[in-house]
Design goal:
Elements: E1 13-15, H1 19-23, E2 29-35, H2 39-50, E3 58-64, H3 70-77, E4 82-86, H4 94-101, E5 106-110, E6 114-116, E7 133-142, E8 152-157, E9 160-165, E10 173-174, E11 182-186, H5 187-193, H6 206-216, E12 220-231, H7 237-240, H8 243-261, H9 265-285, H10 288-299, H11 301-312, H12 319-325, H13 328-331
Parallel strand pairs: 2-3, 2-5, 3-4, 7-12
Antiparallel strand pairs: 1-4, 5-11, 6-12, 7-11, 8-9, 10-12
Helix pairs in contact: 2-3, 8-10, 8-11, 9-10
Length: 354
């Protein structure tokens, strides 16, 4: 397993023609976008972000070794944007390389295939007024104008941890997990808890694991209804991996999340009871993704146990307490009723993406 704390990568090179000026700025929020060979989509994304940030913020593009001129195009069109060039594709974990050079008090992890509304940043940051808020999840709308379900509850079922999408709320609420490509984090807490963990390489479920780890460390996650972005979807992973591979990544990381973070004895017993049942069903159905995911997870068991020991040092609450806090009933309570600052409502301009 590679370290899940941001290192910046020895091969990463940040383009900073204005380093001296930037070093003197007090940066509020660093918006980090990860990209691989999606030049046109990336440029549209950065264009929308440029309209959503203020002069207190910075945009960082992490380019995962693209061959389509993505990094050059961003530098030419948006000279104010910092570009981190990586020699190879680090997938979602390129965000950690952006985090390593981020100067903001807050950071936002963004996919390249999203367009944000002007209030994207301003509507999210007030929810951090409470010191135990670890992350804030934006409202995400798909290209057809439908809710993508980023307001979520957490569910433990048959030995695994799942999320349940909930209807959009007009007021801020709690949220089970901060979606990896459309969320904000308090940077000092992100560095304390640890960022997305490369145990879950190459992708999927790493944001759920990070969020669950943060909840167990005593922090909270909020949903910001007025921080709106539109997700185009399907612009990277589906072009690099097969459907069987993508399914295997999900199954691998569902299992690894339990092995790393779940400490309740009876929940672990339930996991061990249902795991062979899942595998038998997978054999009968010819589900190669699930079987491959289990084999891969098993190969990472020593790394998962090492990560488990480190994560446990931060835990201050148990699994059942966390599940109560992220239940449907708990998540559906407005944050304002629990004493959290509720930002003024801004008129949403949510429309289907062209």
């Amino acid at each position: 397993m590679q370290d899940n704390t941001p290192s910046g990568g020895s091969d990463a090179a940040a383009h900073d023609g204005h380093v001296d000026a930037e070093s003197k700025r007090d940066i509020r929020c660093s918006v980090i976008v990860v990209n691989f060979n999606e030049r046109t989509v990336l440029l549209d994304c950065v264009e929308s972000l440029s309209s959503a940030v203020s002069d207190q913020d910075e945009i960082i593009v992490v380019d995962n070794g693209s061959s389509d001129g993505s990094a050059d195009a961003v530098e030419a069109r948006f000279p104010q944007v910092r570009v981190v060039r990586l020699p190879q594709n680090r997938y979602i974990f390129g965000l950690n390389d952006g985090l390593a050079v981020a100067k903001g008090r807050y950071v936002s992890f963004c996919n390249n295939d999203m367009l944000v509304e002007p209030g994207f940043v301003e509507a999210a940051l007030p929810l951090f007024d409470e010191p135990d808020v670890f992350a804030v999840c934006a409202r995400v709308i798909d290209r057809n104008g439908k809710e993508q379900g980023t307001r979520t509850a957490g569910v433990w079922k048959h030995g695994l941890l799942f999320y349940e999408p909930l209807d959009h709320s007009e007021v801020p609420t709690a949220c089970f997990f901060a979606v990896g490509g459309q969320a904000f984090f308090r940077k000092d807490l992100l560095l304390t808890v640890g960022s997305i963990d490369e145990l879950f390489w190459p992708m999927y479920h790493e944001d759920i694991e990070l969020s669950y780890r943060a909840w167990k460390a005593g922090y909270r996650i909020a949903y910001a209804p007025d921080s709106v972005c539109h997700h185009l979807g399907g612009h990277t992973s589906g072009k690099v991996f097969t459907e069987v591979q993508l399914r295997s990544f999900v199954r691998q990381n569902e299992i690894l999340t339990v092995w790393k973070d779940v400490t309740d004895p009876w929940m672990l017993v339930e996991h061990l009871i249902f795991l062979p049942v899942r595998l038998v069903v997978a054999v009968l159905r010819g589900d190669r993704g699930t079987l491959s995911g289990f084999v891969s997870a098993l190969g990472r068991l020593p790394l998962a146990l090492r990560a488990r020991r480190e994560a446990a040092k931060l835990f201050v609450t148990d699994d059942r307490d966390v599940l109560a806090k992220v239940s449907v009933e708990a998540v559906n309570r407005p944050l304002g009723s629990a004493g959290l600052y509720r930002p003024p409502r801004a008129k949403s301009t949510s429309q289907p993406c062209p």
